[in-house]
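Late entry, written up from scratch paper. The run itself happened at the end of the previous shift, but nothing got recorded in the book at the time, so transcribing now.
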Amino acid sequence: MTLLPVKSLDSFGISPCSSSSTSIALRRGTIAPFSYLLVSSIHRLPSLRLSIRTASTVVRAMASHVVGYPRIGPKRELKFALESFWDGKSTADDLQKVATDLRASIWKQMADAGIKFIPSNTFSYYDQVLDTATMLGAVPSRYGWNGGEIGFDTYFSMARGNASVPAMEMTKWFDTNYHYIVPELSPEDKFTYASHKAVNEYKEAKALGVETIPVLVGPVSFLLLSKPAKGVEKSFSLLSLVGKILPIYKEVVSELKAAGATWIQFDEPTLVKDLDTHQLQAFAHAYSELESVLSGLNVLIETYFADVPAEAYKTLTSLKGVSGYGFDLVRGTQTLDLIKGKFPSGKYLFAGVVDGRNIWSNDLQASLNTLEALQNVVGKENIVVSTSCSLLHTAVDLVNETKLDDEIKLWLAFAAQKVVEVNALAKALSGHKDEAYFSANAAAQASRKSSPRVTNEAVQKAAAALKSSDHRRATNVSVRLDAQQKKLNLPKLPTTTIGSFPQTMDLRRVRREFKAKKISEEVYVSSIKEEINKVVQLQEELDIDVLVHGEPERNDMVEYFGEQLSGFAFTVNGWVQSYGSRCVKPPIIYGDVSRPKPMTVFWSTMAQSMTKRPMKGMLTGPVTILNWSFVRNDQPRFETCYQIALAIKDEVEDLEKAGITVIQIDEAALREGLPLRKSEENFYLNWAVHSFRITNCGVQDTTQIHTHMCYSNFNDIIHSIIDMDADVITIENSRSDEKLLSVFREGVKYGAGIGPGVYDIHSPRIPSTDEIADRINKMLAVLESNILWVNPDCGLKTRKYTEVKPALLNMVDAAKLLRSQLASAK
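Output as recorded:
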């Protein structure tokens, strides 16, 4: 097969000819690079040849692009390779071999599908922001890096910590469930080119015969996503470092040019946020400084996740030396008006019309209509069909789903199918519409709209009625806490954990065998009961005050509930990366949601019967179930959330009736769903907080309602957290370097119980008693001792018992030490 590169053309034509030879003549013009003309089949047709078309129809070559692609593999190959390497069961060479094979497979898949702009450097062993930090040599001194190319030891220590030093902070990537590693920067930092990954992966693809567009996290977004290092004034302007990091970017660009790259993609997603004039000026300055080294290259600046504000759009489209702009036209529909109002002449529009955040098949005809309207604005030769963002945030391949309901499967498109959708739209836009493919798509869209399984009128009415009340508990939190203390009789600084305990291989095997009907329900219940009893006994031995049952029956904190609610569907291999090797399998909410029967009462009451100490009933809240699912896009998200809230409300009330006096309703993802624009935040927070209150508004004062949040910046929504009106909140704190405590130092009063995490559970490192006691003392400096709880940052599911036991023992010892000191002080 022969691939003919067409690097400076905007059209080609095919005409009949009597000669059996194949000749190619190229008409002068321009087209996006990496467009290829497949001529192998033409060689087999002696009656055809390519020639210049002057008076007949000219068909524009297709232009298609994918922002990024899932890196974990269709069956989590990267996850298993990483964990094997971390456990010392395989070598670095073994890990690199898996990674190399995955990259080659992804590039080949996109090339075979006909994608012209194929991204490289979107693969990562852990996180793309961490990759950028290593590219710049931005390594905190505690990791002992002494220069040179950064290897796995330093890289994974930054991501996960090690026996002697903690990991870097991890937080949510914009409003997704993906987590990135937060770079730590200071005015004294000296940056150096310390990872050649971007260039190496470009060369790797090129050696396979695949021309790619290397992707870099842009310099301004990198700085705005970073934080001042410990000891640096919080007022330190991270953007003041732009002059220090640009020389490294110039080195990278120069090497990519030398390697043959003709396009480079800079991801600048922070442009969708509310940037001030100073930040926009820094953005313009950065790309002005890069202009000389970018000369001779085509430059794409990619944005995603929301509308680009008018001022940012003006700044972006005014840049010299930029060839194209990528916009999310799924979540950023208002950007369409800006494009139609003014778009720079001769520039490429990378139109993100295929949703990279959800799994519903694209309405191809509607997208084609949008593209044709845009084509009239920007010019036929200047539009490139693209995804709205990286496909990292969706499942990998629908072909691996052999157990999904056939009707629902028709409505879906995972990453592999979205690549095909992008190319089908590009073909249609260029005059090669696949009528059969479009007709099948239209039939699937119609099937979904008319399916009776989508709508439940009783649920719709119940959810609509919720808007008439704000669903607050009858008494205020201080009165409730007094009533609860009389019933629970807890010590000062009560200890607890967040919910899950380690999920061993044996435990996973039992669940898997029960699901496959290889063991009976009796054997399954007996096995889970034995595990719960082990967890209860361990907590009693450690002298923890409020216990959990460890959640051995649960595969995932969202999927477990979705499996028992109507309106949900589930995949076998629909995995999505959350961070590092951690993957989640989001349920699919396709219809109205209700609870057919109790979901957790059996296990919670069993666990409570094993101890006299309070046993928490463990639930996932409605906002988290919503934000960690693939949500139906045919009604507003808040309507679906209210439906889930009603289902959880039923469960809360059944737990209370069964004698469970402490009920935790996790809202780990509440902050994650916060819109990226300030003007949209209040609307979201109002319905999200209202949804939480709906779940527990009917319980007695003596029933203690907990919630849990993790791995986001909560300071800016602290008043909404207070408005949730939970009795106790446990919240991640230690991995983010106690950022949460600053809000209380600034004078915010919190009257409910609160447990800022005292150690990071995402690191194998075991904190000492003194270290935990020091953290508790810092909390006592800003919080009253009668409301403070002591707990880890998050659940213990991903840890080993050899790590959990000593860490929890040290946590309990630290709490007892502080209780003794408080008593002595009195």
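The chain has four domains: 3-50, 62-114+348-451, 117-322, 457-825.
(Scratch paper discarded after transcription.)
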